[in-house]
Amino acid sequence: MTADATIGASTATPLLRVSGLVKEYSRHRGWFRPADVVRAVDDVSFDIRAGETFGLVGESGSGKTTTGRCLLRLVEPTAGAVQFKGEDVLAFSRTRMRAARREMQMVFQDPYSSLNPRMRVGTTVEEPLVIHKLGDRAARQARVAELFALVGLDPGMMRKYPHEFSGGQRQRIGIARALALHPSLIVCDEPVSALDVSVQAQVVNLLMDLQGQLSLTYLFIAHDLRLVRHVCQRVAVMYRGRIVEMGTTASVFASPRHPYTEALLSAVPTPDPSVAPARVTLDPASFDRTAPLRVVAPDHSAAI
Amino acid sequence: MTTTFPSDTAPPQPPLLAVRGLDVAFPRGAGWLHAVRGVSFDIHRGETLGLVGESGSGKSLTAFGVIGLVPAPGRTTGGAVLLDGRDLAGLSELEWCGVRGRRIGFVFQEPMTALDPVHTVGTQIAEVLAVHGLARGREALERAIALLDDVAMPEPSLAARAYPHQLSGGMRQRAMIAIALAGDPDLLIADEPTTALDVTVQAQILDLLRLLKARRRLALLLITHDLGVVAQMADRVAVMYGGRVVETSGVRELFATPRHPYTRGLLESVPGGSAGARLVAIDGVVPALDAMPAGCAFTPRCGERLARCGDDPPPAFDVGAAHQSRCWLHDAARVDRGLRP
Question: Half-sphere exposure of B328 toward its Cβ, with a 13 Å CA cutoff?
């Protein structure tokens, strides 16, 4: 499947092209001192092909979430370009951007804090339809019921409040809301990391089923490498704001080339007690942090 | 009574900690909601027991039950906790002080909330030493620095003067472990000690726990939901579901031949098979405390349930050497074998 995707996509234009993305935050240290500038995202470029799941992995503070938010302009990038279906998203006006978000949606990490506790879940799912003035009340209600069924929830639960649902069910509600406007790209920011393992599997399966049914493209932001290996066709590894390695998941996991990727992959505890941990520790002096990505294998590059 | 082969003739060492039928419950109306039901396990010196379960399985409450700190209005409603054979149930508050922190150290999941934000790390360790009468004043601070060195804290003397917010997540967890070790305990209870940490930092903390365990012959009760962590750390595993231990076994046997349907489902749901394949999910959710079936709590989600499972709680069946599973399937299997000539 990975090989087909690679061959098919090399000729087509990517659904999303990110080039030279930079997000700087300034940290004010006092009235008369110059502000420090922190580069949360530092010259990040990647393509996402239509229909694939592209993984963005890294540890906390690596800039993966900020990158995801910059794509939807939930955070305004400092520099760089984001092209969605060939159009420059960063040049869009506010109104144009709002319209563009119909096609680019987000599923958030924490299903406990991302749903409005005072709003019935049906209203939460309906809200995007109201904002974008789609259909009359009856049509919207029918669409919400359809969305509930699509994500495996009983439409009879539309009138309940978030606290009446389990974590897995709440994440299904978040997914239903993201799907309301028929998006083509969904940024999934740690969609299952707040859930228990047995429930994680249910939600991951749902995301994979929906991808097939609705031809969705996912940017899958996660720190769980076992999960990323399972669901993503291609993956980019971020370290301190930069992509240090990128390629097909199979190639990156089987033969990581960047020292950080090696250290990261070796740190994941194997769920098999007969395998002794073989850890590679990261020596930050062992690589050049400013090295550009170069091709190391077909559809696999590393900043070495 | 001199023996040439002590290992052959000496009686088996009694466990350091023996938990017997522990029950923890919360008042609800006129009755009690049981969050931990009849939990039993042993931990020997130098051994790591992994207590595995999902949220709501009762694993953290079991740990609180062991150290007599069940959050109110909950309370321990039954069972016994024996430390070196001595029942901790009747201890006075003062006697508890000689156990908590001294015999049993505790490491919490989120070091930022467990550490005191207004005191330096060194002061917090020194306080533990002073409370237990192990050292005070200048000597206590010096021992605090030595403890920080023990937990491989970079620049221990600087770290001793730092406030928790000045440390990274991994360093905070090292500080937490240093505090837990200050009383030189025999047993360390670590409740999800690496869950809030990045995977590379997690690996460092797990290495540290492994090292400390070997160096100090510590017994470790490691509470986690991460099967990878259990596989790498534990000698024995107890799997909890719905407040009960449903399976206990040596770690290798558990991963090689899990017997309880819940354990099997849990192991299968770990991603790691072929990329893009559907994950094996356990349908449904953990039942709420007030909706627990009278029998096995896993019944509503179990693909192999029998007619009796929902009403009749299964006992722990021996399914291997030091391997027990609470499931009626094992009984059925025995009956089958017995009936066939």
Answer: 17
